[in-house]
Amino acid sequence: MSPASSSSSMDEEDVNCRVSPHWPDYRSLLLSKGFRLDTVRDVKQYYCDHFADGVNRLPSSTRAHLSHGDDALCPDAGLRDNLFRGTCIRNGAKVVIKAVHCRSRELEVIRFLSTSPIRDHQMNHCIPVLDLVVVPDDDLAFIVMEEWSSQLIADGGPCCLGLFLGALRQCIEHTVFMHMHRIAHLDISLRNLVTDYNGRYACIDYELSRRLELGQRASIVGFRATEVPPECENGECRDPFKVDVWALAVLMLRACKMCGYCVPELLEIIKPMLNENPDDRPTALAVLKAFDRMIPLIGDHRLQVR
């Protein structure tokens, strides 16, 4: 490898690593854009509103911030350093703000998916992005997203089969949409799926995603993800789109197990998606077409059963 290519590779690795900003430095900037980072006061109020024992329920890592005063920023101990909860000043809606390098692949993909007219496409189930705040002098950008829930099963228990399959269809459809635009997510999993509890599901975390040029076949070295297909166990990925298909199959299997559903017709669709040879896996579009053919065969009675 030449020094130039080695340097280029190192630069690419640097801009796609997770960043850990000093959040207080950007508090005023984000406030000027209409977003307020969570303070000790916000967190205390949340616990008082949601738990009978109020602030006594606070985790120890959060309690440490109480002595800093109600106006001090209060990070969520359950989130990585590049994420911070906040509020949209305009309407009081909760948001999650993610810090990324301003030249990262993630920002490129998010900017594409959240820019009109792409963001309004019915097949696009990317988490709604409210703003992109770029700080070029610090090589940083902040992705401001609506806060949806990662608790996919509501407290009332699993939904009926029809709604469950509708949720899976949104996952498949978004994968098709990404692939149509030469985007491979590369970390499709239940943990990267969220809901607004109004029938909408969204994909998050495009940290590993790649947008490829037409005809470009990417060989990714050092591949890592939540769900790793057999051909990538040595850390190399040669067909990113077939990696997504495999991960999508695992997501569907895990979702069935979590919700207690066994749908033989769905298992027939999933089986070829898990083929050890990626060339023998169907495309995401073929999976969606098979899924849509399956629904009428299940019948209304089964679709309405919990």
TrEMBL record:
SMART domains: S_TKc. GO terms for molecular function: ATP binding; protein kinase activity. InterPro entries: Kinase-like_dom_sf (IPR011009), Prot_kinase_dom (IPR000719). Residues 1-298 form the Protein kinase domain. SUPFAM superfamilies: Protein kinase-like (PK-like). It comes from the Eukaryota. Keywords: Kinase, Transferase. The keyword Secreted does not apply. It comes from Armillaria gallica (Bulbous honey fungus). This is Kinase-like protein.
